[in-house]
Amino acid sequence: MMKTLTTAMKASISEVLETMFFLPIEFGDQKTHTQTKMDKEKANMACQLKFSGDFNGRFLLVTPKDLLIEVAENFLGESRDTLEDEHLVGTLTEMLNMICGNALSKLDSKVPFELDIPEVISESDIPGSQPFIIIKTTQSNMAITVIIE
Q: How far apart, in whole angstroms, are the C-alpha atoms of residue 3 and residue 42?
């Protein structure tokens, strides 16, 4: 199941980030959050989205704040001077909502998946040993994972 979900998640990431957020991407190797060193290099924002259905779990997305500002500019059509934290939070949570919903819709499930409301989390809430898929952009990297519970 995890391999199928990971394949669906990668396809969804490509579709959503390139189409809706105008962000060309490539995938890097899987690394734990600790191995990415993202928490040491830049200020980041993280969010999670819980889901339930044939199985339950949550998606986690971590992105550098400076990359999120660029994404929010493209998505909202606003200049960075007018962006406030609520714009960044809204962009981050909507990005994860679109990725998660798109990925889960690609799965052949008997029970429709239900999504909770995406929520911003502290990086300290991210499991250090959880493998993340690295999403490489022209500016910097993001990291995403799904945890089956």
A: 30
Average pLDDT over residues 92-107: 95
- In the numeric block, the tokens 């060309």 are attached to 24
For residue 9, what are the CA distances in angstroms to 3, 89, 149?
Answer: 10, 21, 17
Scanning 48-139, the segments in alpha helix (DSSP H) are 65-76, 85-105
pLDDT of residue 114: 95
**pLDDT over 80 (residue 38):** no
Rounded CA separation 11/78 (Å): 28
Domains, the chain, with CATH or none? 2-148 (3.40.1550.10)
pTM exceeds cut of 0.85: yes
Q: pLDDT value at position 3?
A: 87
Q: How many Å from the N-terminal Cα to the C-terminal Cα in the chain?
A: 13
The single-letter DSSP state of residue 20 is I
